[in-house]
Design goal:
- It comes from Streptomyces sp. SID7499.
- This is Regulator.
- It holds the Pfam family HTH_8.
- GO terms for molecular function: ATP binding; sequence-specific DNA binding.
- The protein is an alpha/beta fold and about 350 residues long.
- The chain folds into 4 domains: about 90 residues, Profilin-like; about 130 residues, 3-Layer(aba) Sandwich (Rossmann fold), CATH 3.40.50.300; about 70 residues, Helicase, Ruva Protein, domain 3 (Orthogonal Bundle), CATH 1.10.8; about 50 residues, Homeodomain-like (Arc Repressor Mutant, subunit A, Orthogonal Bundle), CATH 1.10.10.
- The chain has 14 helices and 10 strands.
- The protein has a 5-stranded antiparallel beta sheet with strand order 2-1-5-4-3.
- Helix 6 runs parallel beside helix 7, helix 12 crosses helix 13 and helix 13 packs across helix 14.
- The longest helix has 16 residues.
- The protein is flat.
Length: about 350
């Protein structure tokens, strides 16, 4: 008891945290306590709870019971006299323990150390540019963005061959830029070059020649839907630092399961947008609940594969339902369709 005690009460959905506890809690520690509170309904969790290395405190957990049923926990936190230094969090570009992600990052690190060109490919938002910047290390980097720099063919001859060149959005290169880059690689095959490329658009012969030239030294980054086990590691890395006196953003298990079930067509970039929007605009306290997630994420993936047009239509319907509080009659009017049409489309997306 007392205002200086570091105490947190949690039930897996809500939490009460003393001022002293807020100064000790990190997103990782709070995540452990949230999971412990959810587990307390099914097993005995009383005693000292194991916290992540570098947590800087210990946590002694006591179950809270009502009418013989465990409804949550109270965690008493004690700062360590000489805490071990916390391991620095890896940058978002390197975060993830899944086999597909570690294999891709490991292969990219191996190739970039040789000093020869490297091609990073993958869907939009998989983190190609962020990983490329991490791979470049502390050395000065010349950055060119084909989506923004129309004069790439004129600028290439002026670049210094001893400095790493990071070329983003190679799929947007105009033909003169592709020709200049092919010429550069023909004359200097050992050019220190990192190229990011998003497949999808038709490829002309010049760009195809460039891709063929780099194909033996390419790494494809996996989409987020193929490494959903990394989402729980990505969340703390993507969450903005809370304002002084504010607790870090945490998630209920139901919300985490929804995040892991969603296919994330925009990959890590889309997840980052969702996390930032919640961190900046939510007014509720406690961990993020499933009901606070965007409609498409909360409702989960469609029961069958959808075309891009169907994806857009489904997202518009879910957003309209959210705006009208789930009222289907008002939603149909807002969308300009009949109520029977709305019901039919909702049934189709559930098949």
């Amino acid at each position: 008891r007392g205002p200086d005690r570091a105490v947190a009460a949690l039930d897996g959905r809500n939490r009460l945290v003393s001022d002293a506890a807020q100064r000790l809690l990190t997103p990782e520690v709070l995540g452990v306590l949230e999971r412990t509170a959810a587990d307390a309904r099914h097993r005995d969790v009383a005693g000292v709870t194991r916290l992540p290395d570098g947590a800087g405190c210990t946590a002694h957990v006591s179950p809270v019971r009502l009418d013989g049923t465990t409804i949550g926990i109270v965690a008493a936190l004690e700062p360590l006299d000489d805490p071990a230094p916390a391991a620095p969090s890896p940058p978002v570009a390197l975060t993830g323990s899944s086999v597909p992600w570690r294999h891709a990052v490991g292969r990219a690190v191996e190739l970039v150390r040789s000093g020869e060109p490297l091609l990073l490919t993958g869907e939009r938002g998989t983190g190609k540019a962020a990983l490329a910047r991490e791979l470049s290390g502390p050395d000065p980097v010349q950055v060119a963005d084909a989506a923004r720099d129309a004069g790439l063919d004129r600028a290439l001859p002026a670049w210094q061959p001893d400095r790493l060149l990071l070329l983003r959005h190679a799929e947007r290169l105009a033909q003169p830029g592709v020709a200049a880059l092919n010429s550069l690689l023909d004359q200097h095959p050992d050019t220190r070059l990192l190229v990011t490329y998003t497949p999808g658009a038709p490829v002309g012969p010049c760009l195809q020649r460039l891709l063929d030239k780099l194909s033996a030294r390419s790494v494809t980054l996996p989409p987020l839907r193929e490494r959903t086990e990394d989402i729980r590691e990505l969340l703390p890395a993507l969450t903005p630092r809370p304002a002084p006196g504010q607790p870090p953003l945490t998630w209920t298990l139901d919300a985490l399961r929804a995040l892991e079930a969603y296919p994330w067509p925009g990959n890590v970039a889309e997840l980052a947008h969702v996390v930032r929007a919640l961190a900046e605009h939510r007014r509720a306290s406690g961990p993020v609940r499933r009901t606070e997630l965007p409609d498409a994420v909360r409702e989960g993936p469609a029961a069958r594969p959808l075309s891009p047009m169907e994806h857009a239509e489904r997202a518009a319907i879910l957003e309209a339902l959210r705006r009208h509080g789930g009222n289907k009659a008002r939603t149909a009017v807002a969308l300009g369709i009949g109520r029977a049409t709305l019901y039919r489309k909702l049934r189709e997306y559930r098949r």
